[in-house]
Every structure is written in C-alpha cells, then in structure tokens.
UniProtKB/TrEMBL annotation:
SMART domains: AAA. It holds the Pfam family GAF. It comes from the Bacteria. GO terms for biological process: regulation of DNA-templated transcription. This is Fis family transcriptional regulator. Residues 334-556 form the Sigma-54 factor interaction domain.
Amino acid sequence: MPANTESAHARRVLNAVQGHSLHGAAATDPNIADSWRRCLDTHALDPGARMAPRVLESAQLRERRSAMECLRSVSTPVLERLQRQLMNPHQAVLLTAPDGVIVDSRLHDGQRDDFHRAGLWPGADWSESCEGTNGIGTCVVERAPVIICQQDHFRALHTALTCTASPVFAPQGELLAVIDVSSTSADLTRQSQFHTLALVNLSAKVVESEYFFLHYRDEWLLQLQEQADHLGGFAQALIAFDDAGRVLAANQSALNRLGVIRDEIVGTRVDRWFAQTLDALLAQAHPAPSACWPIRTHHGESLLAMVRAPHRAARRIGHLPIPGQETSAPPFSDPALAREFSRACRVFAHDVPVLIRGETGSGKEVFARAVHAASARANGPFVALNCAAIPESLIESELFGYVGGSFTGARKEGMNGKLWQANGGTLFLDEIGDMPFAMQTRLLRVLEDRMVSPLGGGEPVPLDIRILSATHRDLSERIAERLFREDLFYRLSGLEVGVPPLREREDKIDLIQRLLAQACEQGRITVTDAAQDQLCAYAWPGNVRQMRSVIRTLVALSESGVVTLDDLPDELLDVERVAAEASQTEAPLEAAERQALRATLDACQGQVSAAARKLGVSRNTLYRKLKRFGLLRG
C-alpha cells in the first residue's frame, strides 16, 4: 500500500475512535469498532506504524507446538480438507494457539512468499495487542467467528489482507485455538467471505468434536443427536462421564440440548438428565458403537443415543457384535482399528467418502463392510468392485453397465453396472489405485453429477450411492507418476483411515479364536498356549488373509481337536525368519525380554534347564519363550 494511502487509513481509524462518524464495517459491526478502541486506548498501537511482526524463536515455537500436540493431531486432516474445499491458491489456512501465535499453516507453494511478506508464518504473534484488529487476534478476544476484510484492520499495513476466523473450544469451555483463512486477493468483499466463514466455522466444530473424543478416550462417552444419520457429526451432543456416572464434561451442543450451563451438569450423575438409569446406559455401551437407540431427556425431548465404552472396559462388557451383521462380523477390540472405525462411521454418515489404506490382506473390505453395516444404509446393497482383479477391457462395462447388443459378446438383455447395483447403498472400490486412467475420468464425472449412463447410449440414471474405496498403494506417488487423477483422489479421500497390518494389531488372540470359530463347521478346535504364542509371534506378511488360510488348514488337518506347536506349518516355525520378523516389529518390552533371555542362556552355557532354574520358570515355559524369540540352539 502506498504511504499516502496508509496515512489516509490511519487518519480514518483515529477519527473514528475519537468520535467522528464511522464508515464501512466499523459502522455496522460493533466488534470492529470496539477492537479499534482497544487497539488505541488499551494497547497504545499506532495504526500507521510499519513495525515487523513479533515472531517466536524456534525453541519457543517447538515448545508451543508440543503443548498443542493432541489438538494438532486431530486438526491436521481437517485443515487439509478445508484447504481442498477452498480451492484458492491466494488463501492460507492457519491454526493458532489460544494467544494468537500461529503454530501451523497450509499454503500453496506459489503464494508462500506473499504470505510470508504479510507476516503469516508459524511463530508469528497475531494477537490483537501486537497486530491490532485482525481475524486471529480479534477472534481470540471476542471468542466468536469474525470476518476482518481489508480496511477493517486497525493497522494500515494489513489492509491488503482479508481474514476469516473461528474459535475452537475445549470440552471445559476454554479457548483451545483459532482456525483462520487469510487471503491476499484485492477483489474480495465482506459478503464474499460468508461462505468461507461457514466452512471455517464447520471445520472448528469438527476439530472440537474430534478433540473431545480424543481427550476422553479413556472415559465413557454419551453421543446424542436428533436423527440417526447425523450421529457422528460435528453437531452431535457429547457428554463424558466416569465409571461412577459422574459427568466430566459436556460440549456446547449437549448444554443446548439439556438447557443447562456447564457448571450445572459437571459433577452430577449422567442419568439425572435422562429417563434412563446408569446401568441401562452402560448396558448399551461398546468400544466402537455403531447403532443408536432412543432416549428421552429429563424434560421429555426424544433423541437418539450411542455410548462409547473406554477400551479399558472392553473385557468387562465383552466384544459385542456390530448390529446388522452376522457372527462373522470383525472384532474391533484392537484400539487403533476401533478408533479408525469410529472415525469412518462418523463421517460416512454425512456422505463424506472414506479412503481406506492398508497392506494387501489386512482386511480393508471387511472394514468397509462393517462401516456400511453400521450406517443408515445397512439395509441397502453393498457392492464391491476390485479394480485390480478385472481386465482393463472389461472394467468399464462392469462399472457402468451396458445396453444390450452394445458390443460383441454383450448380453442381449444388457447389464446393470456396479454403480447402478449400488443404488440406495454403498459402492466399495477396492484397489482404486489400479483403476485405468481413462476410467478415472469417467468415474469422477459420475461422482460429481450423481448420474450414470450405461455403455451403448442408454439414458442417464440418477444415483443415490455413497462411496468407500481402498488401496495398498501410495496414491501420492501414483499422482506424481500421472497414473492417478489428483482431482479424483480429492473426491474420494474426504477422510483417510488406516487398517493396521496384522503384525501391529493387539487383538491377535481374539482374531485367532474368531477365525477358528468360523473355520469349524462342527465341533470345537482348541489351540495350545505354545501354538498360540507362536501364531501371535509370527509377523504374518500376508496379514489376516494369510492367518485365515493357515487356520483353515490347521482345522482341516486336525484329528484330535487340539492344535499344537508341532501342527504349525514350517514357515511359522522357521526360527531365523521369526527372529528377523520379531526384531523388526517387537515392542521395547519384548526386546528387553529377548535380551534378558539371551544373556541368561549365555551365562548357563546354553543349558536350558539351568537357565529355567535361574529365571524361576518351568523348562516348558522357557522352551516356548526361546522358540518365540528364535533363540533355540541346535
């Protein structure tokens, strides 16, 4: 901004604060007028000053980021999605600490220098006391969403910026952060930012909900909403309570639903506010709830509810099946898998596509079927298409269908494609990273238009589908190699979740028992402790698919109804391989145990009996541990 223009802006601000008539937003928005007065009277700022922004040193910024690690972990995917939604290279997405210091930023590379010249980079202090009226600092003071458009800023230096910000609150009500979108575009108006404000405010609410879930992951959590397909959404009411039923926290939606203030509900018994006992609430709990049930508030309002149990309570309440599924439904007692499943269910209910990442054989389709079964579309079709298993020449007709006689070999009556078969339900695109590039273009058009035309000139048919997709590939690399469309990736990856490989899962024993039950057509097969330890110790490079195959074989070959260590296939007993795999995947505690066993065995010159006596364990137990860690000699 030229010096004379800056001077004119400074005079306008000073005149307005000194009682002269206000112009622009300051005349209609009392927040801006109040902020200008604070800047002059309380902070003693000069609107014409050209001082550089105050920036934290690197060590101070690292400390600030470390203190916000939990919040940053849940906000990162939300900020990335917000940036994709804005689709404007002239806008920066910022996350700040509660005092207005920027801790994270999402910038387009081509605009990085412009934003840095404006002082918008991590470590910069944009509190109102430092930088005057601005989106971040004024949002911190007002604790409410704000739009500060160009000449709304107090300092003339910042009048090239337009800032739209929304606060993020903790479960107890204190300010956690601010999400801000700042733009360097000169042609923006205050009215043009209303849509941006809606997106920023929505993102802040999503972060609040995700932080609530994470902060109270070890407590009971009551989730409330008016409609079933809204459960898991940002607007749901959340109440955290302890084992005794005492309310620990409630979000603003819960306070609004119950018509109370925070101090009235915190510390009371949760069942005081509902026409249902605490025991009845706990009886409905599950570590990864997926089905809702009716509940009435103390003043008679009818809502739908779910209760998420803390994972520490999973053994006490048991592993409940997912409603709408048979007994073959996958267990989600593994904490990481249950957490990802809960996130996927919440966003899928809002028609947000979910991209499932995971190694081959890790159970991505099983995960997808569980998300579908837990949704309001459970009674609709679940249609799966493996993009890597169908020849490229057939995948188009499989996906889109065709009119009879469209090509040589086509059925006379034609065929409905997978897209149409999934109408009213869920389409699961497995191994989406292997879809031919030409098909990606047409699929993107269908997903945007929600219409599908079969091959051969059929009329477009409206579609009502939700999308789940999965891949074992790194789609970023595929995009860089021009093998996958970037715009299709953004369309499919509303939320990315990861299915952990079997070697990292904590529920191997439960999974073994479940697969055994599935494989036994009659009777019951048991596994000895030694065999079970070996099954758990193996790294399973083929993941759940490999374990299922091995267990089916063991069941088929079993004559006594008991699987022992000697019954296991050779690859599971290859001590060198098991040792190598274990060394790559074992936890620090397992590594320490391995080291202690090796040292004791060395001290006893390899005599197992002597080592067992020294360790105070039986010879069989020591043999089992030595075999598990690949330490047997000879």
